[in-house]
Amino acid sequence: MSGYAIVIGSEELEKVQAASMIAAVAVVSDYELDVFVTMNALTAFEKEVVENRDFKTEGGVGELMLDPDTETQVPLFTEQLEQAKMLGELGIYACTMAMDLQGNTLDDYIDLFDDELGVSGFLGLAEDKEVIFI
User: Fold this and answer.
1) What is the pLDDT of residues 38-69, one digit of tens each?
2) Is residue 81 within 8 Å of 92, Cβ to Cβ?
3) Which residues pair with 34 in a beta bridge?
4) How far apart are CA 94 and CA 87, in angstroms?
5) How many domains does the structure of the chain reveal?
6) Which member of 19, 38, 122, 128 has the lowest number of beta carbons within 10 Å of its beta carbon?
7) DSSP annotation of 109
8) Residues 102, 96: contact at Cβ < 8 Å?
9) Nearest-angstrom CA–CA distance, 73 and 65
10) Reading across the β-sheet that carries 130-133, which strands appear in turn?
């Protein structure tokens, strides 16, 4: 194994946040990492959603992460992934099929994606990695 590949398939903030925390820790631990954002998860990366902090939450933890009055403030997944990219080997890819279905291009998303890929392209990147599906 030469690193990890994370597939994010849910737009729920808690799941996207968990994936970003795993990614950040893996990268600072010197693991090579690729992240594939697919299906509804792409919604969480849309510019308008991030700017308005209009995320879908699953429950209390997600709601607390968005509450500015919460005592413990957690960096949003966008910040964690930006920092991780600066610190190590991290590639982030948007799913071409999901983008096509939604009529979106990379310009519709925050500037975190290295490129867009189909499933076969991502499988090529993940060939010798441990895959984590979130």
Assistant:
1) 999 999 999 999 999 999 998 888 888 888 88
2) yes
3) 5, 91
4) 21
5) 1
6) 128
7) B
8) no
9) 7
10) 115-117, 90-95, 33-37, 4-8, 130-133
Contact in structure between 32 and 93 (CB atoms under 8 Å): no
The rounded distance, in Å, linking the Cα atoms of 104 and 87 is 29
Residue whose entry in the numeric block shows the structure tokens 């979130």? 134
Residue numbers of the domain that contains 35: 4-133
Total Cβ atoms within 10 A of residue 94? 24
The model's pLDDT over 68-103, given as tens digits with 9 standing for 90+, comes to 888 888 899 999 999 999 999 999 999 999 999 999
CA 10, 16, 20, 21: dihedral to nearest 10 degrees? -120
CA-closest candidate to residue 26, choices 106, 134, 130 = 130
Q: What is the token pair recorded at 15? A: 């799941």
CA gap 23, 75 in Å, rounded: 14
Query: Residue 109's domain is classified under what CATH number?
Result: 3.40.1260.10
The model's pTM is 0.94
Cα Rg of the chain (Å, integer): 14
